[in-house]
Write a structure and sequence with these properties.
Strand order of the largest sheet of chain B: 3-2-1-4-5
CATH architecture of one domain in chain B: 3-Layer(aba) Sandwich
Order of helices and strands of chain B: HHEHEHEHEEEH
Shape of chain A: globular
Number of helices of chain A: 2
Number of strands of chain B: 6
Strand content of chain B: 5-15%
Largest sheet of chain A: 9 strands, mixed
Distance between the termini of chain B: 32 Å
CATH superfamily of one domain in chain B: ATP synthase, F1 complex, gamma subunit
Number of helices of chain B: 6
CATH class of the largest domain in chain A: Mainly Beta
Oligomer: heterodimer
Radius of gyration of chain A: 15 Å
CATH topology of one domain in chain B: Pyruvate Kinase, Chain: A, domain 1
Largest sheet of chain B: 5 strands, mixed
Chain lengths: ~130, ~290
């Protein structure tokens, strides 16, 4: 029996990515990283800034996301996100710029704890891929 | 009767107008293709989002304490209407249709004694509404500078709406936009986004039980603001496709009318030229006869 399931990544503008030969996906869920294999229980969760790792026959692919929701049902994984980038295509200058914006944001005092947590996460992730 | 020279000038001017409308039609057709594409590509996202929210709101355990964005404030006194129009004119009935729909809704509200607040998106709607409802407009947002509808703009609008909701400035929020059906038909729509209306009949109830991580309430609190952005973005996409479609058919009509007018004027020109020649001939002949 094959160990593959379907994956679809959509952003508001278009369907970003669709695959039907995925063996494992690791997503940065809000309460920690979560690996999803075939026949996972139906689940809905949302994402924090982090890296999505997709494993298929072709190997590993990595994407950077800032937010999103995932839904897994009947071996279909849908990831809805408004900001997703393939790490391979991210230029250093762009990462630097994003880091700068995020650092300015976190320096502000008037943001909520949760927002601050998310931004700190974002900075951390951006630093690791930089 | 107009002189030959005047007629000539008029024909020339109608012809150049025709050229302009023809060019605008072509531009609109090209843009329509793109707008339609992005409207279609944007659909999966909003559909999926809707599905997830539907599943979530069914699974929610404590309906009383559901997030306010879903359940509403429990009142319906103050209505916020977001009227989404274009920034450019010359697109037939596109803007007027939305305004007409909105105005009839407004008058119904005021006859029921509800309070009304308006946010206009796009400058054309603001121009048309500010004469009558000027004191009700609390915000005017315009994206003249962005070329295509993008999610970033939609998020800006939704941020403003949510901020006002949290300050309890309104109870119910409705957006007005044109839904794109085809090039000649656009349907003005009024869609309530706060509190969210879930159409259970829309979709068969799913039997599965989902696992939620973290719990439903927390996901919903995070998801609902996003859903509002998504709905607004969808409206923006539909609107931009509709706008180009409306412009295209309006310009097509204008081009055809100009063609008819040129034909009519040409006939008139030829007739009066013929009349002038005949008149001269008669003068010559009667002159010769009198000798």
């Amino acid at each position: 029996m094959s160990e593959e399931f379907k994956l679809e990544v959509v952003n508001p503008e278009k369907s970003f990515l669709a695959k039907d030969d995925v063996t494992e996906v690791v997503v940065p869920a809000f309460e920690g990283e979560m690996g999803i294999l075939k026949d996972h229980i139906s689940i809905i969760s949302f994402l924090k800034p982090g890296i999505i790792k997709i494993y298929s026959k072709l190997g590993e692919e990595k994407y950077y996301v800032e937010d999103g929701i995932i839904e897994f049902k009947n071996n279909n994984l849908s990831i809805l996100t408004s900001s997703i980038f393939n790490i391979k295509d991210m230029e250093k200058s762009k990462i630097d710029e994003m880091l700068k914006v995020a650092e300015e944001e976190t320096a502000k005092n008037n943001i909520s704890d949760q927002a601050k947590y998310l931004i700190d996460q974002k900075i951390e992730v951006l630093r690791t891929i930089n | 009767m107009a002189s030959l020279d005047d007629l000539k000038k008029r024909i020339a001017s109608v012809k150049s107008t025709q050229k302009i409308t023809k060019a605008m039609k072509m531009v609109a057709a090209a843009k329509l293709k793109r707008a339609q594409d992005s409207a279609e590509k944007g659909r999966p996202y909003s559909e999926k989002m809707n599905n997830i929210i539907l599943n979530l709101s069914e699974g929610i355990s404590d309906k009383e304490n559901a997030p306010k964005l879903l359940s509403g404030t429990g009142k319906d006194q103050i209505h916020l209407c977001v009227v989404m129009t274009s920034d450019r004119g010359l697109c037939g009935g596109f803007n007027s249709n939305i305004i007409k729909k909105a105005k009839s809704y407004f008058s119904r509200l005021s006859s029921e004694g509800k309070k009304l607040k308006i946010i206009t998106v796009g400058s054309k709607g603001n121009d048309q509404l500010k004469r009558v409802f000027g004191d009700k407009i609390i915000e005017n947002i315009s994206f003249k500078n962005s070329k295509n509808a993008n999610f970033f703009d939609a998020e800006k609008v939704s941020k403003i709406i949510i901020e006002k909701f949290q300050k309890e400035e309104f109870d119910i929020c409705t957006i007005f936009f044109n839904q794109f059906k085809n090039v000649i038909t656009q349907i003005p729509q009024a869609q309530q986004i706060i509190p969210l209306k879930t159409d259970i009949n829309d979709k068969e109830k799913s039997e599965d039980n989902y696992e939620f991580e973290p719990d439903e309430d927390e996901i919903l609190t995070n998801l609902l603001p996003k859903n509002i952005s998504t709905q607004i973005f969808k409206a923006m996409l539909e609107n931009s496709a509709s706008e180009q479609g409306a412009r295209m058919s309006a310009m097509d009509n204008a081009t055809r009318n100009a063609g008819e007018m040129v034909d009519k004027l040409t006939i008139e020109y030829n007739r009066s030229r013929q009349a002038a020649i005949t008149k001269e001939l008669i003068e010559i002949i009667s002159g010769a006869e009198s000798l």
